[in-house]
Amino acid sequence: MCVSLAMEIVTRLADVLPTLAEHLFIVSCEEAVEAAEPYITNCHKGRHLDVAAHSLEKEHALIAVHINVAGRDGLMILDPGYHVARAVTVMKDLCYPHTGWFTQSDEPHCRREYCYTFSTHSGNFVEWAERTTRGSNVNHELALIYVERPYRTAIDVTVRRNLVYNFRSLLARDAKGRVCAGLYFPVVPGSDAQFTLFYDGVNNTSVKVKVKFSSFNRDSTKHPETLVGHLNNLAKQLRMEFEELLELLNDLADVAADQDFVQQTLAINDTITEMSADN
């Protein structure tokens, strides 16, 4: 999860650069914001963000540090939760070393680009713009990062919110931060629930396979050779033992088969989504 990844980075930096780590702080992020101005106006009712807290979702967390370059203020942002493989520089004047637009991922079917800028509506927020291109279709998303104060309730709010999120993933990155292997799935009711596994194949290819959770049964140790081959390759790139990955998939299959639990999880997720729909 993004919160644990952020805490892990701060902890590791503290071991090698304790002076820098003292200035790092976790910040909160609201995703899928329809428009920046009304959201920020809502947050500025009263004197503090706390006034609007009951209607905010805060489903993401990042790391920030204030910087000053020749008298010019800015922020440096680290976002391990979204696998951003760089430190993003956000200058208030948009001048060097401001990062601006960059390509986050570029796959044959989809290119995703990010840009972080201080909001023109309030210096307390950074606007995170996402541009996704699939063929001739271009989609834009906006998220708002609150940078005025450290995020003190990341575990109590963001971690709890993500526990009932309707999409789950386990991913591995290479040395450059590229997502190279993993598995992911939507949480859906019914017996046809499935997950997608993917990993790097030979000759710079990517292997992607959809597998039904019903394929896994603790009472059976037999699986098709093709599936076993995929799981072996995936386990290596996830840096897991084959038996460990198989046990994880058996656990997930048990959860997917528990329809009462799935329905309850989706109901809670829907309630949270409806609560924050006006942000």
Automatic annotation (TrEMBL):
Per its UniProt entry, which superkingdom is the organism in? Eukaryota
Organism per entry: Nyssomyia neivai
Q: What is this protein called?
A: Putative secreted protein
